[in-house]
Amino acid sequence: MKAPRFSLANTARNHRDSLDISHFLHGSSPFATLQLSIPMRKRRSRSSRTNKTTQKPAGIQLVPIMGLPEFRAGDDLARTIAERARSRHIAFESGDVLVVAQKIISKVEGRIVDLSTIPPSQAARDLAAKLKKDPRFVEVILRESRRIVRSDPVLIVETHHGFVCANAGVDQSNVPGDNNVSLLPRDPDASARNLAAALRKLTRQRIAVIISDTFGRPWRLGLMNVAIGAAGVPVLLDLRGSRDLHNKPLHATILAVADELAAAAGLLMSKSAGIPAVIIRGYRYRRSTRDIAAHIIRPAEEDLFRQ
């Protein structure tokens, strides 16, 4: 039996707005949609096992919302996204998953700090000297942290949300001004929930929302987008108790689907692309009103490496 194919090839002949992913990764594409041809395996009934008719693979689309402005505190994010999508002839559909970069959430929520207003503590000065960083920057990190996990060679902390990440998510990239830094939203799940509710009023469609940020990963090089806030979409898919293709029981498989969706959208959300919002269309899920991204955080008592 041939393995299923995951195709990122140019599919423009099938969809006029689809093209090779390399154009997006280099930020040079004027097109609007990336089409991923991903076969979705379905459980076959006994009657269908002898049926040699092949089904057309389901497709997942990544649709970037391009041309969004520089956001400021108090801006109406939902209305701006809806209007810009409409101007690009993109109509939201029920079941769409909107992935939004954390940075624009932080901007509209006023989570931007001017370092010139921050007096560093002695602890920040000591750490800054060790790390060769601006002590004001380190002070902001300490204020956003509940504990320091590691301080050499990089400052890894646990934020007040429970995220373990570098610099508590405090970031200077894609923020106007030499002295300005962005902080993570105070409650990313609430931010996602509010954005989803506002978009439903504007579009009359049920749209799930994921707020993403780039995190490093233990034991692996490179950054990737993960979900730090979510509304309307399951964040974990528990397959324990089900069976695999060869009828073997699954005992420990829990998929971090919100992180996978955030990572998929991240293919179009490079630092220089200016695309902070991407629609994922075609992903099939059961709508959830209870799942939040905070559920992805491993409980302290299950953390095998906590000291």
Overall description:
The chain folds into 2 domains: 21-41 and 54-111 and 185-302, 60s Ribosomal Protein L30, Chain: A (2-Layer Sandwich), CATH 3.30.1330.100; 112-169, CofE-like fold, CATH 3.90.1660.10. With 307 residues, the chain is α+β, with helices and mostly antiparallel strands. It is globular and about 55 Å long. The longest helix has 16 residues, at 188-203. It has helices at 21-25, 77-87, 102-108, 122-131, 135-143, 188-203, 257-266, and strands at 34-37, 59-64, 97-101, 112-114, 145-150, 156-159, 164-166, 180-182, 208-217, 220-231, 237-238, 254-255, 277-281. The chain contains 7 helices and 13 strands. Residues 1-32 and 38-54 have low confidence and may be disordered. The chain is 22% helix and 21% strand.
Question: How is this fold's topology laid out?
Answer:
Elements: H1 21-25, E1 34-37, E2 59-64, H2 77-87, E3 97-101, H3 102-108, E4 112-114, H4 122-131, H5 135-143, E5 145-150, E6 156-159, E7 164-166, E8 180-182, H6 188-203, E9 208-217, E10 220-231, E11 237-238, E12 254-255, H7 257-266, E13 277-281
Parallel strand pairs: 3-9
Antiparallel strand pairs: 1-2, 2-13, 3-13, 4-8, 5-6, 6-7, 9-10, 11-12
